[in-house]
Amino acid sequence: MVSRSRRMRSWPLYLFLLLCAAVTVFPLVNVLAVSLSSSRAIIAGEVGLWPVERNVAAYERLFRDGQLLVALKNTVVITLIGTLLHMVATTPAAYSLAKRRLRGRPLFTFMVLFSMLFGTGLIPLFLLVKQLHLINTFWAVWLPGLVSAYNLFVMKSFFEGMPPELEESAAMDGASDLTVFLRLTLPLSKAILAAISLFYAVALWNTYANALYFISKSELLPVTVKLYQMLQTPLDALLGGGDAALYIQPEGLKAAAIMITVAPILCVYPFLQKHFVKGVLIGSVKG
Amino acid sequence: MEKAAAHAQPGRRGKPVKRYAARRSGWLHHLIRDRYLYLFLVPALSYFFLFKFVTLYGELIAFKDFRLLQGVWGSTWVGLKHFRILLDSPDFWLVLRNTLLLNVYNLAVAFPAPILLAVLLSEVRLHMFKRVVQNMLYLPYFISWVVLGGIIVSLLSPSTGVVNHLLGLLGIEPIYFMTDSGWWPVVFSLSTVWQGAGWGTIIYMAAIAAIDPGLYEAARMDGASKLRQIWHITLPGIRGTIAILLVLQMGKMMDVGFEHVFNLQNPAVFSVSDVISTYVYRTGLQNAQYSLATAVGLFQGVIGLVLVLLVNKIVKKLGEGGLW
């Protein structure tokens, strides 16, 4: 009885949290509704939670135009290959830095730490990228952030937390560091590998600044920068004018472009969310 | 492991000359024994060397009149000329002020939000409810600022946005949120809350979960209300976490997320929204004033470095072991 009355009294708490969650998600729902509504309804400001005079003209127009699809394809390539590159550079390095017996470890750790403390200027970075002839290549997106010092340290602290006896016994049997790393450590580290890959993948999917700085060729732009251009320009100009543009409200087109850009994230988010949380918690033990 | 290493160096017990040789072979020995470990470090360290240390050389152009054709070394030295230009330019003081102000707003509005949410969430006993609410609150953190910015602009549009439509129903004239220099900082701060408050709860929730449940038990026995329990047990219990995150946030005072500001910004509100990173992008990459932009960036980097070092000292003083 006591617990029930206590639960009854806590309804304002539940209501408030529900309200917070609703406010958080509402903007996305609204934009989805706008993207599916008629121009008339959009102009009249009638669209709230639900599409008014539902149609998919905006999506049809964007798909027919194709630019956003090319950009989406670029982003897929950037994300898949980039995640692999980031992981291949980060994981073994974290493993090495976790080994106390490694000579020069303080120096290496300092190099990583310094990169965390001092923000490199944009112009020196630009000059380097230019010097390396990476302008207008995907490498300009991958290389400037190849290893995140934060992710490296999270992984390092994970490896440091593994019981050393396991590896020592393997080393006794004459296994090299390479064998131990590949056969023993990696299979035991699936949770952290998943979490860190996901952090990298999300960052790559959302990659923006590097592409804005270093990629100017329209056909190489990732979806984020393409979307930025679409949001900035009057859309008939961007989509080559034509009569069809006249019947579609720019707001509707922009909303549809936004939805196409986030749709992949929204689709995978519910399944991957718990891995992200795990990653943060591992990291917060000792950042 | 150490024993094995000592075994492999019989020269250690020899004459002084040999001992020298032995020490060298000791290094060599380590290099050979740990060859894979060193190999593992090559990609990451090359990256850090190239993109964090070689770029330091590029910072030199802050003290030169840089011309692309002459290269970093070939350009003429001008000493502190660009820094003097900066100190005399009203633009620089404006972006510096905006950078600090937007950070202060974030500290005041966006910093307490996840603490409040975490305290409330930890009171929820219905697990299903909690999980659903958390999932919804975390979501914006995974969406890029271009998209969030686009959504905000669409939502707040004076002609077609739903917010102004609702205000209209209350008889309020449309508000130009994005182009009004009074409203823009409000939108900016609230957008920080929208994007990060939910995600920020994770670390506080973990801290709350680590509080000894016996304390709550005892408080209940003494008839303490929920509010009093939060005030006297929960908040003191996460004080350390709050202090560290607060100090960390202060260490980032010179830095406002470029993508965040850039995607909400428009020329009508430059006076309140132009920050160091957007200024560097415009003067440096768009107007090719390389030396001037580098000087601004270097200024930001050095102050940022000093701030972080200071912050680390403070965290150590707080008895939290420091960040490194």
From TrEMBL, chain A:
What membrane topology is annotated for this entry? Multi-pass membrane protein
Q: Membrane-spanning regions, if any? A: 68-95, 107-128, 134-153, 191-215, 255-272
Gene3D superfamilies per record: MetI-like
**Coiled-coil regions, chain positions:** none
**A cellular component annotation (GO) from this entry:** plasma membrane
By its UniProt entry, which InterPro entries does this protein fall under?
MetI-like, MetI-like_sf
Q: Name one GO biological process term.
A: transmembrane transport
Which ranges carry the ABC transmembrane type-1 domain?
A: 72-272
Q: Matching PANTHER family, A to Z?
A: ABC TRANSPORTER PERMEASE PROTEIN MG189-RELATED-RELATED (PTHR43744), POLYGALACTURONAN_RHAMNOGALACTURONAN TRANSPORT SYSTEM PERMEASE PROTEIN YTCP (PTHR43744:SF9)
Say which family it is in: Belongs to the binding-protein-dependent transport system permease family.
What is the protein name given in its UniProt record? Carbohydrate ABC transporter permease
Question: Which species?
Answer: Paenibacillus sabuli
TrEMBL record, chain B:
This protein's GO CC annotations: plasma membrane
Q: What's a GO biological-process term for it?
A: transmembrane transport
Q: What is this protein called?
A: Sugar ABC transporter permease
Organism of derivation: Paenibacillus sabuli
Signal sequence region: none
Q: What CDD domains does this protein's entry cite? A: TM_PBP2
Q: What is its main location?
A: membrane
List residues traversing the bilayer: 36-58, 100-121, 142-163, 183-209, 230-248, 290-311
